Amino acid sequence: MPRIRLDHKEKLTTPASSYSYSAARIEHLAEVGGADQTLVTILSDVSFSVEEFKAEMERCLRGAVTGIQRWGKASGRDNSVLLRWVTFSSEVEEQHGFRLLSECDPADYRLEVGGTTHLYEAATKANEVTGHYGQRLAEEDFRVNALTIAITDGQEYPGTDPKFRLAGVTASFEALRGQEELDSHCGILVGVNVEGNPGIRKWLADFETAARWDHMVTTGDFGEGTATDLADFIVSSISSTSAAIGSGGASQSIPLTVG
Amino acid sequence: MKTWADAAFRIGSSHEVCEDYAMARTGNRPAVALSDGCSGAENTDLGARALVLASFQSGDTFYGCALRAESILTFSGMEFKKAEEAILATLLTCAYGDGKFFVKACGDGLVGCQDAAGWGAVTLSPQVVNGSERPYYPAYLLRHDGPRFGMHWQPSLGDPGPGLDLDRPFTVDYARQPGVSHAFIASDGWTTFYEVAARKPVPVSEVLDEFFPFKLGGPAFVRRRMSAFKRRCAKLGWDHYDDISIAAIRTEDE
């Protein structure tokens, strides 16, 4: 007899800019437990320059997902974290919407690289989507906080849409922080493979300041050790954000130690 | 029929230790219980917890619950006299079975239900007769020379909902009428809300209007509501002197 798989996700659209995304049905979240939810969005750069360390980046993402699943089970908070994964290059694509950790499969984290870097568009959309879904959860009494981690090796390559400029990213962060339904929101900008490139590093530092990311961390050459360290950093950031819910503040910044 | 049971409690602004306790049991026979310790009695926070635990172990009678709670505390090393004092606390329970909510209350508090139209509740004040105005605690049932109880109902909070039977002491039965989705029990701390800035009391009906309704089901449906209500209170500038607790059973037609 075939097993019937219940569809626990729904397609949604943000009212402000009509960005489409998918997310776990709130009725499903209520039934599986957890009065709190931490909305985590990982934005992965898949522009052509990522090709040289694609395998390590995939290893990093899989390691992070495996690590956070392990943490979720050990802490009993596996039904209180929702993970969304978005890749960006010339296109911003949702690989999967907000889903419970148990519904994430590390094997799914494969990168197809190519194109330019539309980081502004990815960040702007991610913030608006987080705000919208956070509001929906809060309306159903969930306590919600959020974390956005953008991993990139390069600077913005502006697209043609005037909506996606630096000012738009800044405004989207401000809107999210001003949203009272969210306990807190933390944005972390991760620059990989940039330690040896002062120009890119400076651009990222300026972007961090201007767009008001909460933290920025950078790494050097993206080897196996860096992938492991970055995966650990992502796990620590998610677990501390989840633990901080209800405290009224964002999680504490965790230093990224490479090598 | 799907059922959920959940409970939540929160310390009041005038307390250093939360003397309310509430617990839920899910499964085929969902049940919830809560207890509000008497502030004047030593270790009443422990007594409240013991009474709630006892109600899940020996829940048939309040006498049995009081006896069991006293045993829990004395077996844990508390002197008998202290255990006797510690269990000076209320006990309210609610269970669901055979299409009915069974609510029992010994001591003061609130009992009510939610249907599609909203909430309805009554305040319960089973009090000591001819004595000071103190609630009738289950602990008194263990005393041969203990005070006699009397009942004092105040069904003025709102429409208590369909199927309410107030005839028998300590027992309030709700037949689950069509549309009635929840039955709840709550401590008397809900009557102690005040506006922080003006130091002005907030009527309990206004407090409950802000608290209700319960929204989605699930194992944390009361805790979620309590958490959202806390945020709402902060916005309204409300706080509560006494500890508050609430426990509820939700039924859903599948």
Polypeptide structure, described:
Chain A has 259 residues and is an alpha/beta fold. In chain A, 37% of the residues lie in helices and 24% in strands. Chain A has 6 helices and 8 strands. Chain A has helices spanning 26-32, 54-75, 119-139, 166-177, 198-211, 224-244; strands at residues 9-13, 20-24, 36-45, 81-88, 92-100, 143-152, 182-191, 215-218. In chain A, strands 5-4-3-6-7-8 form a 6-stranded mixed sheet, with helices on both faces. Chain A has a two-stranded antiparallel ribbon with strand order 1-2. Chain A is globular. Chain A starts with 8 loop residues before the first strand and ends in a 15-residue tail after the last helix. With 254 residues, chain B is α+β, with helices and mostly antiparallel strands. Helix content of chain B is 23%, strand content 34%. Chain B has a 6-stranded antiparallel sheet with strand order 1-17-13-6-7-10, with helices on one face. In chain B, strand 6 (109-115) and strand 7 (118-124) form a beta hairpin. In chain B, helix 1 (44-57) packs across helix 2 (62-75) and helix 2 (62-75) crosses helix 3. Chain A binds chain B through residues 26-27, 29-36, 138, 140-143, 246, and chain B through 215-221, 223-225, 227-228, 231.
